[in-house]
């Protein structure tokens, strides 16, 4: 019996089709139709040429030797299994050709005619192969748990900051939300993220960061606990509604906690007196327009200098994993291992 925590991760790729979905570039319907018609015509002409080469072995009820048009006609009615019987193989070589050659061509021709079913089967096989390949290669990606308003906004921010859609995995129980994520080119996993086997299926153990954007604070705490257990080195960022639950998320293993209700409340309060401040904050939080808050390494020429005297507008210094304000006395001299939080112009 497979342990519960390995119930999904121990399964082969073909079993996970429908649970784990790897995006692929959509094909043009017109191109698919043209390709199928071309294959059908090629099969038909191959059969017609084969019959024409051995036309002396066929008997036509109207008499005379078969013309090439007769051969095309015979191939069409034979491959479509219509079989009017006005032209028939009359010699052993001709009958052998019908058994050895025409039968496989007939199968191929019919396969093209029922191409929709065939395409569904091939799509499932292709997805199974892609799932197995993805599971073997995925590393240093981001897992987004919950694709509601917060999850979508988080993904949009990452994509605007030049993250690749294939490096983002969305986990949710809502199939509609997952369909939207798949349409955006994201890898999706259908399942409850409080279960460790679901997170392992999303390769959370190999992720560089995990975003917890669930709709309930208690769910966020449980997901964070589970994620931290299987991904001890990943950066976990969680969103909650109530500030009183912030310490619970910290204790559960979250590196950063965003209180959505308080953040929105502060912006609403500021907007009543200084709405332009809110516009600027929104601009700074939108990587694809105007200005944005970014982080970078210290350049060699900046070591020993003050962060307040650099060409960039520096807001803070990250030292030993801790964020220090730019006016803090301990960061008067920049160290080589520091990282700078600064305001950059989008496109620079």
From TrEMBL:
Residues 139-259 form the RCK N-terminal domain. It is a multi-pass membrane protein. InterPro entries: K_chnl_dom, NAD(P)-bd_dom_sf, RCK_N, Trk_Ktr_HKT_K-transport. GO terms for biological process: potassium ion transport. Its main location: membrane. GO terms for cellular component: plasma membrane. It comes from the Bacteria. Gene3D superfamilies: 1.10.287.70, NAD(P)-binding Rossmann-like Domain. The chain crosses the membrane at residues 33-54, 66-84, 96-121. The keyword Membrane applies. Keywords: Membrane, Transmembrane, Transmembrane helix. SUPFAM superfamilies: NAD(P)-binding Rossmann-fold domains, Voltage-gated potassium channels. It is found in: Cell membrane. This is NAD-binding protein of Kef-type K+ transporter. It comes from Mycobacterium botniense. The lineage of its organism: Bacteria, Bacillati, Actinomycetota, Actinomycetes, Mycobacteriales.
């Amino acid at each position: 019996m497979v342990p519960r925590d390995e119930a999904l991760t121990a399964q082969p790729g073909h079993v996970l089709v429908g649970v784990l979905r790897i995006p692929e570039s959509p094909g043009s319907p017109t191109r698919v139709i043209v390709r199928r018609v071309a294959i059908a015509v090629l099969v038909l002409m191959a059969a017609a040429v084969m019959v024409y080469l051995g036309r002396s072995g066929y008997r036509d009820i109207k008499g005379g030797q078969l013309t090439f048009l007769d051969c095309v006609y015979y191939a069409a009615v034979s491959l479509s299994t219509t079989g009017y019987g006005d032209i028939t193989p009359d010699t052993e070589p001709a009958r052998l050709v019908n058994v050895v050659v025409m039968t496989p061509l007939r199968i191929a021709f019919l396969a093209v005619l029922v191409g929709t079913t065939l395409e569904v089967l091939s799509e499932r096989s292709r997805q199974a192969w892609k799932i197995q390949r993805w599971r073997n290669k995925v590393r240093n990606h981001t897992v987004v748990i919950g694709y509601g308003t917060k999850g979508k906004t988080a993904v949009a921010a990452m994509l605007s900051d030049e993250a690749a859609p294939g490096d983002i995995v969305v986990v949710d129980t809502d199939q509609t939300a997952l369909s939207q994520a798949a349409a955006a080119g994201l890898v999706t996993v259908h399942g409850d993220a409080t279960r460790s086997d679901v997170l392992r299926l999303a390769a959370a153990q190999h992720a560089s960061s995990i975003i917890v954007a669930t709709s309930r604070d208690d769910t966020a705490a449980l997901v964070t606990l589970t994620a931290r257990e299987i991904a001890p080195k990943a950066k976990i960022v969680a969103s909650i509604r109530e500030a009183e639950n912030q310490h619970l998320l910290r204790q559960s293993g979250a590196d950063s906690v965003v209180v959505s209700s308080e953040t929105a409340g502060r912006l609403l309060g500021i907007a009543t007196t200084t709405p332009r401040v809110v516009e600027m904050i929104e601009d700074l939080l939108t990587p694809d327009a105007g200005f944005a808050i970014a982080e970078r390494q210290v350049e060699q020429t900046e070591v020993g200098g003050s962060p307040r005297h650099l060409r960039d507008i520096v807001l803070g210094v990250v030292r030993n994993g801790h964020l220090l304000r730019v006016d803090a006395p301990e960061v008067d001299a920049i160290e080589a291992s520091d990282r700078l939080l600064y305001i950059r112009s989008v496109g620079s």
